[in-house]
Amino acid sequence: MSDPVATVVATGEGQPLLCSKENTVAITPKPRRLKSGQVVWDVQFRPTPGSSPTREVFDTLPAAKQFVTLIDRVGGAAARAARDMATMSGTSVPTLNTAIDQHLDELRASVTAGTIRRYQQIANTRLRPTLGDLPCDLITRPVVTQWLAKQRETPVQRGRTKGSTPSYKTLRGAQALLSSVLEHQVRAGTIPTNVARGLKLPRDGIVRDKVFLTPTQFATLLDCVPDAHKPLVSTLYGLGLRFGEATALTPADLDLDAAQPVVRVTKAWKEGKKGSYLGSPKTRRSIRTVTVPPSLIPILREQARKKKPGALLFPNAYGEQITSGAFHARVWQPAVAASGLDPAPRVHDLRHSHASALIAAGIPLPVIQRRLGHESIQTTVDVYGHLAPEAYAGAASAIDLSLTQALPKVESEAAPDEIVGEVLEERQIEAPDVAQQ
Question: Of 4, 114, 149, 426, which sits 20 to 30 A from 313 (CA to CA)?
Answer without folding.
Answer: 114
